[in-house]
Amino acid sequence: MKNDIMEFFKLPLKEKEAMKQLPGGIQGYGQLFVQSEEQKLDWADMLVLSTHPFASRDIKFWPTNPTTFRDTLDKYSVELRKLTGCLVRLMAKDLGIKNPELLGILLSEHLQSVRINYYPPCKHASKVLGLSPHSDGTGLTVLLQANDVNGLQIKKDDRWFSVKARPGAFIVNIGDLIEIMSNGRYKSIEHRVVINTDKERLSIAAFHSPPFEVALRPFPELIEAEEERYRAITVGDFMKAYMTDRLDGKRLLESLKLKK
Ligand SMILES: O=C(O)CCC(=O)C(=O)O
Ligand SMILES: [Fe+2]
């Protein structure tokens, strides 16, 4: 996967633009969260692809150069779904959720998409951000810092900490949807990407979420003993709100809290 994405981003712009996003769409090569002509853009190119369910795949956006790309992504996404399934089972156990139906919400035909990020170096690195501060609007994200270059930072106690890139290691980020479902026991993590002056950086984020029609709310088993902390919203409505706004920390999730 690493080699295939490196080769893809090395292609001339014209070739990459064959996979260009279409107006109003999310999948494809380009940028996301662009709301205005005046907005300062993040210092990155990205390729966004839906990988699961099969019907959500828009194959015209899947590169054919390198020739192995499609097959590699197919295999990579299947393996990451298995990994996510294991993690979710462990989390459900940790939360004490036994109801198989609830577990099914997390595990059933969930949505999976990947965002492949390419951050070019920048001489004025301190003046740009690779990716603005945000928490992921998903359930669980499995992230690979693909060429082992640092850049990811997480926010803790109002300070930014760098996450060291370790060869072959995945980073698992809790997304906003799991924060809601766990009634805040698991917190989504705010993160951003900073740019290097001399090194390019590549990453692959794989996002996993329940299907659009699922009404997200804290699991009933959890709120028997504690108060409900989040307003219910469907996955589809959450994602729509997330994708049509700019990235801004955990603002959207905060707006769903019942007590501020
Ligand atoms: O490039 C990274 O390390 C982070 C990417 C990320 O946060 C995202 O795609 O949501
Ligand atoms: Fe992210």
TrEMBL record:
Single GO term (MF): oxidoreductase activity
Keywords of this entry: Iron, Metal-binding, Oxidoreductase
Keyword Oxidoreductase: yes
InterPro entries from the UniProt entry: DIOX_N, IPNS-like_FE2OG_OXY, IPNS-like_sf, Oxoglu/Fe-dep_dioxygenase_dom, Plant_2OG-oxidoreductases
Pfam families per UniProt: 2OG-FeII_Oxy, DIOX_N
Domain Fe2OG dioxygenase: 110-210
Gene3D superfamilies: B-lactam Antibiotic, Isopenicillin N Synthase, Chain
Similarity field: Belongs to the iron/ascorbate-dependent oxidoreductase family.
Entry-linked PANTHER family: OXOGLUTARATE/IRON-DEPENDENT DIOXYGENASE
Protein name: Fe2OG dioxygenase domain-containing protein
